[in-house]
Design brief:
The structure is a single chain. The protein has 654 residues and is mainly α. It folds into three domains: 227 residues, no CATH class; 214 residues, no CATH class; 185 residues, P-loop containing nucleotide triphosphate hydrolases (Rossmann fold). The chain contains 25 helices and five strands. A five-stranded parallel β-sheet has the order 2-3-1-4-5. The chain is elongated.
Length: 654
């Protein structure tokens, strides 16, 4: 996404569309690998082949769990180290993680390959499904290094500010998988082996594309010596633990249901194989719905986080409302499809001539997913609460349905109702979870409302203070580099006997944000990343904004940092822009900044470009458009002292 967006001003609906669509595509594509295999294998092999893919799916979940542990952990560590200004440490962390990922994934693949016969019964495999699962699983495990590596690197690529690249590598792999599935299974009749082979080839291509990205890593240069194991891995794995735990919960639930299907299926007219296969199909259908809902919610995270941090609580509430509404609409759409067209959906996965299979599949779709639209609220709430910084409550929302409610209810009902008891546990858990999540979500929503009230009271107090302090004057100065603007501001503040803030804002921002002064000084008023995702540039701007607003409670002179825009709604603010000719700027830069005369003009132009881009990104206004300033002065025409005098006279008259 090349276009940049002002998260604090742009329409929420426009932001949601721009941010969520790539996220939805990435998540759906990421789930296509397994769905496509199941469709083609179901058509070419039958429901036993489908059951085999379902039995092997826990291994895919384990691979994703370790990929999240490593990839998300390294992405978090990368952001933190860059925030601290420790570029070399960040580079070693990324390089070490890449090496560890490749080595670990190879060892993991080899161990699981030989232990697969032990795993299959634990995953609910039946005697009839066993030979299919063994063939399919062994090939899939050969591609496990590709799967773990590209999934881990995908998180790093997004953290580096290239979400589109991450999406593209997934899409290319998925397209290759679909084409080869059709060729290997339907044309060459290679069965489950053909489906597995198509999958690992697609994953291999995605892995190569992901590894190629390392050569053009944007945030830090990666050198050959960075690629070795180091102590940073301990921090990386610590940061990724949350993602790992979430995936392992999914694993527990999936294995639990596989075993419920085989155990209680054996006691029913359907036998063990049909329920095992059907649960895999139902899970994949539901996964398309889940990917769509999570795509909207995850896409909204930077919007919620930015505005919440900026104190724009009305925009936060608006975003939450729209995410919930949109996802409930999506949920109702999918829910109606599950209830009205279950036969058509099930037949995509084959076995259309097996009436017993179709009967249980249709029943499962209609019963297990009876009120699945309520899950949209649960999933959206979990992501949104996490965006507001309450990780414990967000985790609780996830645990309520999956562990606290569903498993106990399924065990209880199955004891009395057999295999259908496990199916009815789904809607019952969904309904109970819905009411529990409403309470949790509304408590967080009300907190935002209370915060909004505090902000209003603060604005009222500031207005009253302004009425009392008639002589209060706030002067903001934007200036071209080497135009003498900082010196003008210093003399102006000194003459008015009010505080002057320029470099002083850096130390105040460091206390507000937690970044080091050195990092802020190096990166402020420069926008390194133009990704729509929330990053450290935005954190610095938010922290500086809060500092500037606090300084503006009394008379002062503030230089740069978009202060004119941040304080645009305040009274008694005089906005000034100072500039001068390139010749005079070069002379001033050589005399006062000790720049080499040959390079001075190049440096001046570069700094001014950075200031203009930074200003335009956060204000959506052109830096040199004098129409939104009260005063624009060519310092050379009057000289520094006369410029100061002119500003003082205007302030007195105002």
């Amino acid at each position: 996404m090349n276009k940049t967006f002002n998260l604090g001003e742009e329409k929420i609906s426009k932001l949601l569309f721009a941010f969520s669509i790539p996220c939805i595509i990435s998540m759906i594509v990421n789930s296509i690998y397994n769905i496509v295999d199941q469709i083609f294998i179901g058509q070419g092999v039958g429901y036993l082949g489908n059951a085999a893919t379902n039995v092997i799916f826990p291994l895919v979940i384990i691979c994703n769990a370790f990929a999240g542990l490593i990839g998300n952990g390294c992405a978090a560590n990368l952001s933190l180290r860059l925030g601290e200004g420790k570029g070399e440490e960040a580079a070693k962390s990324v390089g070490g993680t890449v090496v560890f990922t490749i080595l670990f994934s190879i060892i993991f693949s080899i161990l699981c390959y030989f232990l697969l016969p032990v795993f299959l019964p634990l995953f609910g495999c039946t005697e009839n499904v066993y030979p299919y699962a063994l063939k399919y699983g062994r090939i899939i495990l050969m591609g496990a290094p590709f799967m773990i590596t590209y999934t881990s690197l995908s998180s790093l690529i997004r953290a580096d500010g290239s979400p589109k690249y991450s999406m593209i590598l997934l899409v290319i792999g998925a397209i290759i998988n679909i084409i080869l599935d059709a060729i290997f299974i339907l044309k060459f009749h290679m069965g489950v082996e053909g489906g597995a082979l198509a999958t690992i080839i697609g994953q291999g291509v995605s892995c190569v594309i992901a590894l190629f990205y390392l050569k053009k890593f944007k945030s830090i240069p990666l050198k050959r010596e960075d690629y070795h194991l180091n102590k940073s891995l301990r921090k990386v794995l610590g940061y990724g633990l949350s993602s790992f735990i979430t995936q392992m919960i999914i694993l527990v639930l999936f294995v639990f249901m596989n075993n419920m299907m085989t155990h209680y299926g054996a006691l029913s007219e359907f036998g063990s194989d049909i329920p095992l296969s059907v649960y895999g199909v139902i899970s994949k259908l539901n996964n398309l719905y889940v990917s769509s809902v999570l795509g909207i919610a995850i896409g909204a995270q930077p919007i919620v986080g930015f505005n919440y941090g900026a104190g724009k609580t009305k925009r936060v509430q608006e975003t939450l409302r729209k995410v919930i509404i949109v996802n409930l609409v999506i949920g109702v759409f999918f829910n109606l499809c599950f209830l009205i067209f279950p036969r058509q959906l099930i037949m995509l996965f084959g076995s259309k001539d097996n009436e017993l299979y179709l009967k249980f599949a249709i029943d499962s779709c209609r019963i297990f997913l009876m009120v699945s639209f309520l899950n949209a609220f649960e999933m959206s709430s979990s992501i949104m609460i996490q965006s507001l910084g309450n990780v414990k409550k967000a985790t609780l929302v996830t645990f309520i349905r999956q562990i606290i409610l569903f498993i106990p209810i399924a065990l209880l009902l199955s004891h009395f109702m057999g295999i259908y008891g496990a199916l009815y546990a789904g809607p019952i858990a969904d309904i109970l979870c819905f009411f529990a999540v409403i309470y949790i979500f509304m408590s967080e929503y009300k907190k935002i409302g209370n915060s909004n009230t505090v902000e209003k009271e603060k604005e009222i107090r500031l207005k009253l203070n302004k009425e009392v302090l008639k002589i209060k004057q706030i002067v903001t100065i934007n200036r071209e580099y080497a135009s003498g603007g900082r010196y003008v501001g210093h003399l102006l503040a000194e003459g008015l006997n009010i505080p002057f803030y320029d470099k002083e804002i850096i130390s105040l921002t460091a206390k507000e944000s937690g970044f080091t002064e050195g990092y802020i000084q190096k990166n402020e008023q420069k926008k390194k990343s133009y990704s729509p995702e929330y990053n450290s540039d935005d954190e610095i701007f938010i922290a500086e904004s809060k500092v500037i607003e606090s300084l503006a409670t009394e008379s002062c002179v503030i230089v740069g940092r978009c202060a004119d825009y941040i304080l645009k709604d305040k009274k008694n603010v005089t906005k000034i822009f100072l500039y001068s000719s390139e010749r005079d700027k070069v002379n001033r830069a050589v005399q006062y900044y000790h720049l080499d005369k040959k390079d001075a003009l190049k440096t001046i132009r570069r700094v001014n470009r950075e200031r203009a881009k930074h200003y335009e990104y956060y204000t959506n206004q052109k830096w040199t458009d004098f129409s939104h300033y009260d005063l624009a002065i060519n310092v050379d025409s009057l000289g520094v002292e006369k410029t100061v005098e002119m500003i003082q006279n205007i302030l007195i008259k105002r």
